[in-house]
Amino acid sequence: MAEKNEFTDINGKAILLDCQNYSSFCREFTVSSPKVSLCKVIVCTCSVWLFAYAVFFVTENTAVLSSAIIITLVGMMMHIHLVKVEHETLLIIGSLGVQLSTSYASGRESTTFIEMSRIKDIVINEAVYMQSIIYYLCILIKDSGDPNGIASVVPLFQSSKPRLNCLVQVYKSCQAIIAQTR
Amino acid sequence: MVLKIFFPTCCNTADSGLLIGRWIPGQDSAVVLAVIHYPFIPGQVKKYLSETQNQSQVDLAVLGSWSLPKDGQEGMDSFLKDLSTIFPNSRWLQLSREIGKRGFACQVVHNRITPPDPAQGGTDKKDQIIFIHYDQRKVMLSQLHPIHEESPGEESSELRAVFHTVAQSGPLFLLDRYDEGPLKLTHWQSEGREASIVVELSKQASVPLCIVLTWLVLLSFQLFLYVVCCRILNIWPVQFISSKMSTCVQTAYRTNHFQTVFSTKKATSHMEFMRKANIFVSFLVDMSLGLLLVSWLYRENHISQLANTLVPVADHVAKELQELLEWLMGAPAGLKMNRALDQVLGRFFLYHIHLWISYIRLMSPFIEMILWYVGLSACLGLTFALSVLSDIVALLTFHIYCFYVYGARLYCLKVYGLSSLWRLFCGKKWNVLRQRVDSCSYDLDQLFIGTLLFTILLFLLPTTALYYLVFTLLRLVVVMFQGVIHLAIDLINSFPLFAMGLRLCRSYRLAEGVKFRVLCEEPGTPLHLMMEINPLKCSSVLQRYRTPTYSCYPRDSWVDLCKKLFMGELIYPWKHKTTKTD
Amino acid sequence: MGANSGPGASPCASPVGPWRKVLYARQPFPDNHVDRRFLEELRRNIRVRQYRYWAVVRETGLVAQQVSCVAVFITLWSCMDQGRLGPSVLLWAATGCALPGYGLYEMLGGKDRERPRLADLQSAAVFLAFTFGFSPVLKTLTESVSTDTVYAMSAVMLLAHLLSFPYTQPSPPGSLSLNAALFASVCLASRLPGALHTFAMLSWALLVFALWPCLLHRLRERAEWSFPWAAGLVCAGGVGGLGAVWPGGALLLSLALLVLTLACPLLLVCLQRHKDNIHGPWDEAEIREDLSRFLS
């Protein structure tokens, strides 16, 4: 039931779309980004430490070295805990709702569940991003006062930013489930 | 449509019996609340359900049957099918679980009366059922955010309805406390019964005690309030001064809290309850911190040490100010100031400092005693001690405040004079009626005197501006120090300690929403999901449950503040100048 | 251009009728359509006046005498700064100038007086009192400001006075010009050695910059013949006075006055011949009606 496909994100990096089919109206899509490359970490750490050593060479103050070590450690932790997203999951359950979860490299997971009654539609949208135009998948939330209005837009796969061909695949499955259970 | 069945996890291993619960109106979902075991008499079940319904205001119903085959219970299926005729319902659920399999099997039997469709039966509907398992206790105790207090009856949201149903059906769980009823039920309370009884008894005992205590406290308190508020505070100068002293403000604030916490009215809504609890906990923490401070202060003669350092510090500040003034009276930083005005201003301020120093000399023998008595206020809480400290700082830096006010007034006068005389210089004037600048032809003598004054003010401006700048900087340092103290007070006052504790220790109590986990996917069985509670984020806990406090922050923005500083208006604390709007 | 050829040509033949220059009727022509009568309404140089040389020279006398006034004031100041003139002498001279001047002004004013005499007296009292009271303050005002700054400021202000002086309507004096001149005189006066010097200087500033233009204006209105003589007198006074203090400056001033009174009008008259203004239906509308009955 599970199928894995290789796609690229808007920057051309490889990402993995894992499509898990639990039943005809419950499907889970997981977009995993590549892991933190060791090379990059080593380069960053080395450059900070070399800079710190250069400062130490001039000032001869050992506090510089210790603070550099602390800065790199804290920076790495913050990066893992707050910035680096390992995978993003979209779980769509027909007639119940849609659940978005983002898991960070440290294992922290943030989850949001949106009930089906609040969802107006799931669409692919365009956005101007820096100098280019990108596509993204988003959920339109109904306005409680106005039946045709849209209260807000929740973008999906915000950190991995897959390309259009990946989005289309997710979009088709989602639309199939929504059409089936409505 | 997909049928959703919310099933409590504690009933997974219950003996066979009847499912009690509620059909959520408008949604295709059922909430199972408990299982009634065999043997039972259908009439008793009906009576029990109606009783419970009266108490809990939830329309309970028999949803269907539950079978967990054990040894010696054969031929149950036909019996279960017959039950659906006893409890008339449009739909009848038949849940069955087999030993060794994790998933349930489910059949929906539609009542024959309503749809005369021969192709009924469970076979084609089998896929369209979702089991959502939930932890009954957690769902019952948790509070979904954002909170809607107004209409608990008619939620559009399905999850809210589920949460509401479970929370309201408390009486169902309490009724078999002593296990004497004619029916045997399985739900979350049926496991940890003893512990809850102890809690229950202690709760019941504590209520009269609390009431007596509250009455005593309130009575004395009201008396005190009557005397203080009605007699003393309503005299004008006292009222004015007390609104400026942070100790008085803090007292009023705590009094207000005291009244809230010890009011005899029961907290009905969740927010009110949380507010009371937050205030109470922060009160306790404040008191304990204050007592710690007191115990440190009155040990090993710390007070006299403090007094011995305080007086030289005040003296030193005055000396430093004197040197600063002498520097200003020379040619500070090579600036070209008007010598005569410089001398006049410098001497004026020097005389003030002289007065101040003699005042401190006069006070110094008594300072230790004052501190000793003031230190006692820390018994009322750390916030009181801090606000007293803030007031003491304000009193000890009164000379800086005076300088600032003189400087600001002088500067303000100059700036306003210059701006209006500049208009005269250009042959314009401010039209008050139309709120704009109009051209105007002045008389010869008006022009002459205006220009004379303009020239004088323009050449004297740098001198006053320098004095103003220096004293404003000094004043800002003091205000910043007081601001830090006030921030600390505000933090203790407004931090929702109780809500934060709930979030950390019982994270399910404050729910932001739910999250689902797919449990098992055996082919042939319906989908099983686990519903877990998604706890509220710490930042939103802070934002939602923060106790509102008197604002000690500057009310205007930074740009406004800079503008005021530039125009020489007083910034703090006498800033209650109402702007005219028309 | 496009009127005769492009869009306008073909619809003319249509049975709709000729084009009319109205906006209220809907016509089958584009908005920018015009017909061949367009350039017939072109007019050139309707309002250009031909000046006569000596009349213009006569008018420039006002500008020249204002420049000379500034020169006279600077002369007085430098005399006082160098100590050649005492303040009391100047004060007596000011009184001697002011009283006949006032008499002349009143004599020329005729019978219709706008201000009562008491108001004039009051104004004079206010001037004297304020100037006298503030002169010690003014003396110490610019003590710490460097002399160059004060000179530069006064020069700029006097220039501003000359530039913003309302030459067409010199009475009452314009606010900006009078204020600039007074500011400059206060700056200069504060450099003088004593408080009485300052007082004398300010009273002269008042005479030269505020009262003299009023008198001159009245002279021009009531006794036309005397205006060139008065202007010439002031010019001669300016050049002569400056010559006593700074001969080079006097030479420059006289050159400037000559250019101003003789060369500039010549230039104007010569260039006037080359003027070429066109007027036509494209001009914005002008309301010729007399609006005074609405304004009263």
TrEMBL record, chain A:
The pathway to which it is assigned is:
Glycolipid biosynthesis; glycosylphosphatidylinositol-anchor biosynthesis
A Pfam family found in this protein is PIG-H
Q: Per its UniProt record, what InterPro entries does this chain match?
A: PIG-H, PIGH-H_dom
Where's the Phosphatidylinositol N-acetylglucosaminyltransferase subunit H conserved domain? 89-158
Q: Which domain of life is it from?
A: Eukaryota
Which Gene Ontology terms of cellular component type are present? glycosylphosphatidylinositol-N-acetylglucosaminyltransferase (GPI-GnT) complex
GO BP terms, alphabetized: GPI anchor biosynthetic process
The UniProt similarity line reads: Belongs to the PIGH family.
Protein name (record)? Phosphatidylinositol N-acetylglucosaminyltransferase subunit H conserved domain-containing protein
Q: Which gene encodes it?
A: PIGH
Automatic annotation (TrEMBL), chain B:
Lyase recorded as keyword: no
**UniProt KW keywords:** Membrane, Transmembrane, Transmembrane helix
The regions listed as transmembrane in this protein's record are 212-236, 279-298, 344-363, 370-397, 403-426, 447-470, 476-499
For this protein, the record's InterPro entries field holds: PigQ/GPI1
One protein family per Pfam: Gpi1
Q: Name one GO cellular component term.
A: membrane
Origin superkingdom? Eukaryota
Q: Does the keyword Membrane apply?
A: yes
GO BP annotations listed: GPI anchor biosynthetic process
- Please give the PANTHER family that the UniProt record associates with this protein: PHOSPHATIDYLINOSITOL N-ACETYLGLUCOSAMINYLTRANSFERASE SUBUNIT Q (PTHR21329:SF3), PHOSPHATIDYLINOSITOL N-ACETYLGLUCOSAMINYLTRANSFERASE SUBUNIT Q-RELATED (PTHR21329)
Protein name as it appears in the record:
Phosphatidylinositol N-acetylglucosaminyltransferase subunit Q
Q: Which organism is it from?
A: Electrophorus electricus (Electric eel)
**Highest classification ranks of the organism:** Eukaryota, Metazoa, Chordata, Craniata, Vertebrata
TrEMBL record, chain C:
Among its keywords, does the record have Thylakoid? no
Keyword list, A-Z: GPI-anchor biosynthesis, Membrane, Transmembrane, Transmembrane helix
InterPro entries from the UniProt entry: Plno_GlcNAc_GPI2
Transmembrane stretches in the record are: 198-215, 227-246, 252-271
Where it mainly occurs, coarsely classed, is membrane
Q: Which GO terms describe its biological process?
A: GPI anchor biosynthetic process
Output a single Gene Ontology CC term carried by this record: glycosylphosphatidylinositol-N-acetylglucosaminyltransferase (GPI-GnT) complex
Pfam families membership: GPI2 (PF06432)
Q: What is its pathway?
A: Glycolipid biosynthesis; glycosylphosphatidylinositol-anchor biosynthesis
Q: How does it sit in the membrane?
A: Multi-pass membrane protein
- Compartments, record wording: Membrane
Tell me where on the tree of life, at the top rank, the source sits: Eukaryota
PANTHER family per the record? PHOSPHATIDYLINOSITOL GLYCAN, CLASS C, PHOSPHATIDYLINOSITOL N-ACETYLGLUCOSAMINYLTRANSFERASE SUBUNIT C
What family, per the record?
Belongs to the PIGC family.
* The protein, known as: Phosphatidylinositol glycan anchor biosynthesis, class C
